[in-house]
Structure formats: structure tokens, C-alpha cells
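Predict structure. Chain length: 97.
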Amino acid sequence: MEAYVMDAFSTRVFGGNQAGVVLPDRPLTDAEMQQIAAEFKHSETAFVTRSPDGSVILRYFTPAGEVELCGHATIASFALLRQEGLIADGSHIAHTK
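Prediction complete.
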């Protein structure tokens, strides 16, 4: 599992809105995602997985529980996927709660 702290809405480190972004290497339980988010202590941590069709599945947890959607964690997640070469430029589909 890889875990990152990303700075959304900024071109500099420690700027903008920070979000945790986790790329799990196995399925995680809700309790595990909650524990990881609590450890990060950011307002939101996104957990990113890929569907067989290539779309992105995003789940968001705060230190207190799961939330349906988070804009800056979504941007952080796609920025990380692009930075790591896991997606190319262009349009992509994201599934959230």
C-alpha cells in the first residue's frame, strides 16, 4: 500500500488544501480505512482503487468517519494518479458514494 500527502489547489509544498491519498494493494475494510484516516489526521483521506473498466473508485474518510464526496481529495487523487503515470491526460470516470 502506498500513502501520500497531497497539496490540492497549490503548486508548492505545504500550500493549498492537504489530503491523504491511499493506493491500497489489497481490499481494505471500512475499519482499516477509518484507522488510516485517523492516523493521517487530515480533514479527508481518499482511498483510490481501479475498476476493471479503467474507471476510478474513490472513497473518502475523515478522522471521524466516511463522507460521500470531497472535492480537494478528488483533485489530489487524480493529480497523484497522473504524477505516478497511472493515468494519462484526458477524460476519466470517477465513482463515489
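Summary: Residues 71-83 form the longest helix (13 residues).
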